[in-house]
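Table S2 (continued). Query chain:
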Amino acid sequence: MRELNIRKLYYSISEVSKITEVEQYVLRYWEGEFEQLKPQKNRSGNRAYTNKDVSLVMRIKELLREKKFTIEGAKKMLLEKEEVIEVQTSEIQEEPIINETLISPSESLEPEIVGEVLIKRSDLAELVKLLKQLHQVL
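Corresponding output:
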């Protein structure tokens, strides 16, 4: 991936093509295949990609070209990742805080597998604690 020195709010399809090294016609095709990839269009109808869109293109490229997933397999991976993020976010917001952790008494401290990463609940709780401290500083 080529790095640009200037970060912008929106990128044209030609800029995204250069940054990600993915051809423009492939980007248009992926828009039809991956529901998460929906760049906005400006008044003249040109695509306006956000930084989030560019990151998603890079993830799709990684899954398809480097990890050799099929399009259907890549779709499933992206959907699973979205679901895991949604579940983790709701757990963090809704679970009671006990002894400054986000673990309820009924839960074990056994590690659980989230996506392809092994995460201990105590590690997750420590991360949330650090994020809260950072939030207070800001």
